[in-house]
């Protein structure tokens, strides 16, 4: 049976193990899972991005705040400086130069753009750039808000463009109070701070940093082009973090691109998609392998069932055959038994003729003796009558022995093997065979057989073999002068009986196929004697064969039979 056909899945079977609805459900699930994966990873990446941005913003804010605090401290400290105050009170050249030098030194230390001192009229009397080409000294700054506001409120802050430098900066101012605690200030101390360094630092980072004033104008930015431009709303792809700048009305905003979060989410989703595809492919392979295994197991089961069925059928057929053979064998046995009987009856036919002749003679003698006895009775010679009667008794005994043998031979064998005395079997066979017509001239040489020598056989059947052999020899010797049958007996583990004659020997065509049923050279023969004799010998555990024929030396048959203990 070709069960490979069940193993290799064709399209139909693939459809069977992976239905379309399953594929659709798996695809839908995959899309849902990937969508959820994108959402979750995008949100997490955005949160990370925002947290990082807030960290950056805090660091920038601290840097800005520290600059502001430091510069504010400079104005406060200088506003209280004795040298400054003296220069305002006594604005001679020496005092002013001294202050200018001091301011110049301080500017370098505090990293401010310029520090200068205004008198109560707003005119710069000393400045850190006093010795430079473009000096503030002598310039009137009374129009500046940081001056008027400081004169009024002690402190002021203003982000503006420098009138001389034209550079944007934060102006921090503080009024110089008189020694006596009077109400009107002596002047105003001003520090201009420029944030170029900070802005350069910010520009190094990817995220954009803007500081917007109360008017919504960008005053500081990592991108200088944006300065003094109104702040605009961030676009969708931006992540922003904002905070107020302490001590000012400014707001710092750090704006970064949200793309990294998008890319991270896309990468994660892609990886998950790849993993899911891999899983699906592996799952598909596993399903396919499982399906193959199941198909193979089913095929094997079918194969085994078919095999079992075939074996059962064959067993049934064999049983039928055995039964038929038994019937045939029984029939054969029956036929063989019938053949044995037929052979025996044939032999009996021949024997009977001899026996009739043998019986007739004593019968005639008995009649003669009886008639003689009657005559003697009338003479009163009773002793002669008694002799006659005893002769009659002997005669009848002889007749009855012959008829007994005949009856015994004629009866059917029982088929039971036993220990049969060989001498008894020979006696019976000789009694039956030595009385045929034309056999009187045959001399039979029989060795003395010990009465305790027994063979495994059945009496009637053993006699049948011996009768067949002796009769065949006698018939062959019909024309032979000085006819002789010689019997030899050798007893070992087997008993070998050889029956030889000095007749013409086996005819050539018969010798070639001896022991073949119905093979006979005699007009009235049946051709069964030797076949049946051989069968009987085999049944007894022995054999019967013809000795190799020697021309002009008669025939010789060898009968081997197991010796009975
Ligand atoms: P049947 O005696 O009826 O022919 P048998 O089977 O006894 O059948 O013998 C078969 C043949 O074998 C005989 O016809 C005869 O030709 C041959 N045969 C048997 N015994 C002898 C013998 N002693 N000498 C010569 N021929 C024999």
TrEMBL record:
Pfam families linked: HATPase_c, HisKA
Source taxon at top rank: Bacteria
Keywords from the named record: ATP-binding, Cell inner membrane, Cell membrane, Coiled coil, Kinase, Membrane, Nucleotide-binding, Phosphoprotein, Transferase, Transmembrane, Transmembrane helix, Two-component regulatory system
Membrane-spanning ranges: 20-40, 262-287
GO molecular function, one term: phosphorelay sensor kinase activity
One GO location term (cellular component): plasma membrane
Classification via InterPro entries: HATPase_C_sf, HATPase_dom, His_kinase_dom, HisK_dim/P_dom, HisK_dim/P_sf, Sensor-like_sf, Sig_transdc_His_kin-like_C, Sig_transdc_His_kinase_DctB
EC numbers, comma separated: 2.7.13.3
Enzyme class: transferase
Catalytic activities: ATP + protein L-histidine = ADP + protein N-phospho-L-histidine
Coiled coil (UniProt feature): 318-345
Membrane topology: Multi-pass membrane protein
Residues annotated as domain Histidine kinase: 354-565
Location of this chain's protein in the cell: Cell inner membrane
Role description: Member of the two-component regulatory system DctB/DctD involved in the transport of C4-dicarboxylates. DctB functions as a membrane-associated protein kinase that phosphorylates DctD in response to environmental signals.
Protein name (database record): C4-dicarboxylate transport sensor protein DctB
Organism whose genome encodes this protein: Paracoccus aestuariivivens
């Amino acid at each position: 049976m070709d069960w490979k056909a069940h193993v290799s899945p064709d399209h139909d079977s693939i459809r069977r193990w992976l239905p379309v609805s399953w594929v659709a459900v798996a695809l839908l699930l995959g899309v849902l899972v990937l969508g959820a994966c994108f959402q979750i990873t995008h949100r997490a990446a955005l949160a990370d991005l925002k947290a990082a941005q807030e960290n950056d913003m805090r660091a920038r804010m601290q840097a800005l705040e520290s600059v502001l605090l430091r510069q504010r401290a400079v104005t406060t400290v200088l506003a209280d400086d004795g040298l400054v105050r003296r220069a305002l009170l006594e604005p001679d050249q020496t005092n002013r130069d001294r202050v200018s030098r001091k301011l110049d030194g301080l500017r370098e230390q505090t990293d401010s753009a310029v520090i200068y001192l205004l008198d109560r009229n707003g005119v710069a009397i000393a400045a850190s750039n006093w010795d430079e080409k473009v000096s503030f000294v002598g310039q009137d700054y009374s129009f500046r808000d940081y001056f008027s506001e400081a004169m009024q409120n002690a402190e002021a802050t203003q982000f503006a463009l420098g009138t001389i430098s034209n550079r944007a900066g934060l102006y921090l101012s503080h009024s110089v109070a008189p020694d006596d605690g009077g109400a009107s200030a002596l002047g105003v101390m001003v520090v201009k701070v420029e944030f170029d360094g900070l802005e350069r630092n910010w520009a190094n980072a990817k995220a954009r940093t803007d500081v917007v004033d109360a008017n919504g104008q960008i005053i500081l930015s990592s991108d200088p082009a944006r300065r003094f431009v109104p702040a605009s709303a961030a676009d969708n792809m931006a992540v922003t973090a904002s905070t107020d700048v302490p001590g000012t009305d400014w707001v710092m905003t750090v704006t970064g691109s949200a793309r990294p979060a998008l890319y991270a989410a896309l990468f994660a989703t892609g990886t998950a998609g790849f993993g899911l595809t891999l899983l699906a492919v592996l799952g598909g392979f596993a399903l396919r392998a499982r399906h193959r295994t199941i198909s193979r197991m089913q095929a094997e089961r079918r194969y085994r069932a078919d095999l079992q069925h075939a074996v059962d059928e064959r067993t049934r057929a064999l049983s039928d055959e055995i039964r038929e053979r038994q019937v045939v064998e029984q029939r054969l046995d029956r036929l063989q038994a019938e053949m044995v009987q037929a052979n025996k009856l044939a032999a009996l036919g021949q024997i009977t003729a001899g026996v009739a002749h043998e019986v007739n003679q004593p019968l005639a003698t008995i009649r003669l003796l009886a008639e003689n006895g009657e005559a003697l009775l009338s003479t009163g010679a009773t002793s002669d009558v008694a002799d006659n009667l005893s002769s009659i008794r002997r005669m009848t005994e002889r007749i009855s022995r012959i008829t007994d043998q005949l009856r015994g031979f004629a009866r059917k064998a029982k088929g039971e093997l036993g220990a049969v005395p060989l001498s008894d079997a020979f006696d019976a066979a000789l009694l039956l065979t030595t009385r045929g017509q034309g056999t009187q001239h045959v001399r039979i040489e029989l060795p003395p057989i010990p009465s305790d020598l027994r063979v495994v056989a059945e009496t009637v059947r053993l006699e049948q073999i011996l009768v067949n052999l002796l009769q065949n020899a006698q018939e062959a010797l019909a024309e032979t002068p000085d006819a002789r049958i010689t019997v030899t007996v050798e007893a070992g583990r087997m008993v070998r009986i050889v029956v030889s004659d000095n007749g013409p020997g086996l005819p050539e065509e018969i010798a070639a196929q001896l022991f073949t049923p119905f093979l006979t050279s005699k007009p009235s023969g049946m051709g069964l004697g030797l076949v049946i004799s051989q069968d009987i010998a085999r049944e007894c555990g022995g054999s019967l064969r013809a000795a190799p024929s020697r021309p002009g030396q008669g025939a010789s048959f060898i009968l081997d039979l197991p010796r009975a203990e």
